[in-house]
Every structure is written in C-alpha cells, then in structure tokens.
Write a structure and sequence with these properties.
By secondary structure, the chain is an alpha/beta fold. Among the domains are: 262 residues, 3-Layer(aba) Sandwich (Rossmann fold), CATH 3.40.50; 45 residues. The protein contains 19 helices and 15 strands. The strands form 4 sheets. Strands 3-4-12-9-10-11-15 form a 7-stranded mixed beta sheet, with helices on both faces. The chain has a 4-stranded parallel beta sheet with strand order 7-6-5-8, sandwiched between helices. The chain has a two-stranded antiparallel sheet with strand order 1-2. A hairpin with a 2-residue loop joins β1 and β2. α18 crosses α19. The longest helix has 22 residues. The structure holds pyridoxal-5'-phosphate.
C-alpha cells in the first residue's frame, strides 16, 4: 500500500518520524505535565565536555582565538564617563571550518549520526547551521540535505540566505529551497521519512552541548591571559542555543559570576511568517523575531524538548538597531582590521554600549564572530533593502522603524542598548506552559520546575502565578 503523503497524514506521523530520525526517546525525561528532567536529558542524551572537545578537535572545530579590540575599546572610552569603558575582547569563531560557532553544534550532531549508523543528515535551516552541517558531513563522508526557506512568493531571495545556499552546495550538500510558509516542516518530515537520514536538529542535547566548549574556552582563555573570568559575556540571541550552550560552558569553567547578556536586533513590527515582511529585514538571525518566541516557548522546535532554554541562563537581554549593527560592522573592519559577518556584530554593538557602563578594569567578551561573504556583506544587504523601498538614513537609530528605514548613527555616541524586560518574557513563558499543558492548579513540583526554567526565585514565580490568577494545589 502506498504511504499517504497528504499534509495531514504526514503531520499525524510527526512523532514517529522524529523518533526514528533523532535517535532519542524523549519520553524517558518526561515527569508529567509541563515538567521534564532537563539536566538528566543533557547528561544522558549528550556528551561530556571532554568528549566534545575530542570530537570537535577531530575536524578542526573550536580553540578559536580571543582577540582584544583595542581601538573599539578606545572609542567606547571616549563616549564613557571618566574611568569607565571595559576592555572589549572578541572570540573569533569565524576561524571554525564553516566560518561560525555553528560548527560546534554540527560537529557533535554529525559525529552522533555517524556513530548511530545513519547514511546521511538533514537539517531545516536557512542559516549558518546549514553550512556547518554540510561541512561536517563532508568531513565524515555522510550525505547531506539542507532545507531552506529563502524566497518570498515572488521568488525573490534574501541575499544572505542565498549566500548560505552557495556555501552548502560548495560543501557538497543538496539544498532544497522553499518560499516562506508552512511547507518547510512538511517537506522536512517527508525527506526524513523518505531517506531515513538523521535529523541534525539545532536543538538536540548534543547540539547544544557542542556550544558548551565555546563558553568553557573563553572563560579559560580569559583566566589564563588576564588572570580572571570576564565580568560580562555578550551573546547574539535567536533560537537560544548560543546563549544556553555558552552559559553552561561558562558555569562548567567555574565562571559563575560572569553576567550572561543576550543581544538581538530589534525587528519589532515585522512578522517572520509573513511573505510581505520576509524581505524587509536586513538581518536573517540574531533578531527579536526568533529571540522572543524561542525564549518564551522553546519547545516550538523540531524536537519534543528543546535543549536550548535561554531563560534559564539570561541575566539581561538587550536590543540594538539594524543601523547600529551595520555601523559596528564597518567599525570592526576599519578600526580593527576584521571584516566579519553580521550575526556576531549584533553582540559587538551591544558590547560597545554595555562597556561604557562598566569600569576600565573590567572585561567584556563578545563570544563570536562569523565569516562574511557575497550576500552577508553590508553592501548587498543595503542595496537589497533600498530595492525593497527601505530608506537608508543617518541620524538617531532610536527613530528606526523596521521594514521602513535603517538609520545609521550620525555619531558613535548614538549607539545604545534598550533593555528588554526579562520579567515580561518569563511571564509569557509561564502563560505558555499553562496554555499548553492546561493544569487546573499548580503543584509545588511545578513551581520548582518553573523557577529553574525562568531563573526566578520561588517567591517570584508565586507572585506571577497570583498576578495571572492561577490557583495553587491545596
Ligand atoms: C553566526 C550566528 N550567531 C548567532 C546565532 C544565534 O544563535 P541561536 O539561534 O542559537 O540563538 C546564529 C544563528 O543563526 C548564527 O548563525
């Protein structure tokens, strides 16, 4: 009998397809209702830090240099009050084989696929992760399919995503290109079922554990060369794996007091699933369109329990504007001689402003750079924005309206961070837990679970539950 490939039939087989494709039985970590054992999942389904260091070093991943940005620090100090302006360092993740920190995630996923005997790997991603998986698959001799959402309905492609298509194909992967819409997940499931390949999801425990080496390395590098852990680490935030893995690695290195600060480009007002808005943004990752939905509901991912859970680790979440990030991209190239891609420059922009709040003897680390290339560079992005009717202006970036204009700061003192109220994100997370699992009342265990998931005190959780009118179990 022929398998029913209708949309509803494939979606109905989702759990079965996923279970076969990822090699993890997530049900063993479930504790009933909203609760699951996150640490057990990270421990049993992942690898130890030492194992990951070995796996990554086999393919030249990791051990990237930590560079001091002396000229950018000098510039920040000119804008800061006397005695302020922390030393800014950057971890040059562009040195990884596929040009970004995503190689760390892909290294563990592809190694695992090979160990389990899969013939190939599939990832649904329009970002650097596709190139990272393709590069790792090439090294391990596995086949690779990358499913991308890269066009709007006019078949106009985002330059940065097209750039990644070129990279994936150069590494020998087959790239399936789609337009914006719900068919991404459907196509992904069909391909997994048809090929029997491994789902190299971004969100498995081994993928996220792959990023732990990044936090661990940078903490160790600071300790060795500067005599202390950094006071703050700035992390570009989208799906949450970058924040989660880095923060876990910092903790494993003993850097418990280092502040974990997430940074995203503010794309408020643009809708990620909208065909009309798809090509009106100049950043394809590290923006609020992913950052907020994933922080407030991580389990929207392509695995039952997402190992990337940023609210567990974030001390602060700050937003920057598109024009500011373009400006800092140019500053990094012209002041430091480092021409790097957009995603890492999001946290660099935030670091430039955060450094001005910190003392001169303090250390701030921007934990990544990414490679740049034909479609990622500011010029193609700005030309593309202009061709979509977006105005490019100089002035006050605070007046930037995503999708309408991009405002370059007319002076570096205009570069700012806007704090996103993390409590708001935590309340949304709690509401999402309640609307998904529909408990009639909340037990003590559930309160503890929410407290760990949101990095809140139990008293904080209780006050939110009271605010939203959720009864406690008698
Ligand atoms: C270079 C780079 N930096 C940062 C991010 C954000 O990482 P995450 O999605 O894990 O938050 C991405 C993800 O697309 C990326 O490719």
């Amino acid at each position: 009998m022929k398998t029913d490939m209708s949309y509803s039939a494939v979606m109905g087989r989702k759990n079965e397809i996923m279970k076969k494709a990822v090699g993890i039985d997530y049900s063993v970590f479930e504790l009933g209702g909203m609760r699951f054992d996150y640490e057990r999942m990270m421990h049993e389904a992942g690898y130890s830090l030492e194992e990951i260091e070995k796996i990554q070093s086999m393919t030249g991943v990791g051990n990237t240099p930590l560079l001091e940005l002396r000229n950018i620090t000098k510039l920040a100090r000119k804008m800061a009050p006397a005695g302020y302006g922390a030393r800014i360092f950057i971890k040059d993740e562009a040195c990884n084989p596929s040009g970004s920190f995503k190689a760390r995630r892909a290294a563990t996923a592809v190694y695992h696929a090979k160990k389990l005997g899969y013939k190939g790997v599939i990832a649904a991603t329009s970002g650097n992760y596709g190139a990272a998986v393709a590069s790792q698959a090439a090294m391990h001799g596995l086949r690779c399919i990358i499913v991308q959402e890269c066009y709007d309905s006019r078949m106009v492609g985002q330059p940065e995503i097209l750039e990644k298509q070129r990279a994936c194909e150069a590494y020998g992967a087959e790239v399936v290109q789609l337009s914006v819409g719900p068919e991404l997940f459907y196509t992904f499931l069909c391909l997994l079922e048809e090929t029997g390949y491994f789902n190299a999801s971004l969100y498995t425990p081994f993928g996220i554990a792959g990023v732990e080496t990044l936090g661990f390395e940078l903490a160790r590098q600071c300790k060795l060369s500067l005599g202390k852990f950094p006071e703050a680490v700035l992390i570009t935030h989208a799906g949450g794996g970058n924040v989660t893995g880095t923060a876990r690695g910092l903790m494993k290195a003993g850097a418990e007091n280092t502040k974990v600060i997430g940074a995203s480009v503010d794309l408020t007002g643009l809708h990620m699933a909208s065909d009309k808005d798809f090509n009106r943004k100049s950043f394809t990752t590290g923006h609020t369109g992913f950052g907020l939905p994933f922080a407030t509901w991580p389990d929207r991912a392509d695995v039952p329990r997402n190992a990337a859970r940023p609210l567990r680790y974030l001390d602060r979440y700050v937003l920057v504007k598109q024009g500011e990030v373009f400006y800092m991209t140019e500053a990094l190239a012209s002041l430091e001689g480092l021409e790097r891609g957009p995603a890492g420059n999001t946290s660099l922009t935030a670091a430039f402003a955060v450094a001005q709040e910190m003392h001169e003897d303090e250390i701030i680390v921007v934990q990544e750079t990414e490679y740049t290339g034909a479609g990622k560079h500011p010029m193609p992005q700005l030309n593309f924005a202009r061709s979509n009717g977006i105005e490019i202006l100089y002035g006050d970036p605070d007046k930037e309206i995503p999708g309408k204009n991009i405002i370059f700061p007319d002076h570096p003192s205009r570069i700012k961070i806007r704090d996103f109220d993390l409590r708001k994100a935590k309340i949304s997370f709690i509401k999402n837990c309640i609307s998904t699992y529909k408990p009639e009342s909340i037990s003590e265990e559930e309160i503890q679970f929410i407290a760990s998931e949101t990095k809140m005190e139990v008293s904080g959780v209780l006050s939110v539950l009271q605010e939203i009118g959720m009864p406690l179990q008698a």
